[in-house]
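User: Can you predict the 3D structure for this chain?
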Amino acid sequence: MKTRVQEFIDRMDSQEYILTKDIGNYIIYSFLEIHRKGIPNIMSQTEFSETISRLLENWDVLPEHNDKCLLRKELLLIGQCLPYDEMVYPELVRNIAISWSASLVSEMVH
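Assistant: Here is the predicted structure, written as structure tokens:
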């Protein structure tokens, strides 16, 4: 029988978890890139490109995600962010994005 810790580790290594995280990260990255220019983003351009690649490779089997409806395959294919108005992004996404970028700025200062 697996321990709860091992079950957690296995879950974090699963393709479903990685893709769920990729969906959220892509949306958050897009929000920051489009609406918060000049502040640190949550991942590098290389990580962004890798995220896009995974999303495209698994497009037909992406897991459920509250904000999955925001994804656009045609934008992924050309490596672009989601160009929505700020208020199209869910409030939780906006809050997480702003919080993460603020913590990155704080780390850079210290």
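The helical segments are 4-13, 15-35, 45-57, 73-77, 91-109. The chain has a mean pLDDT of 91.
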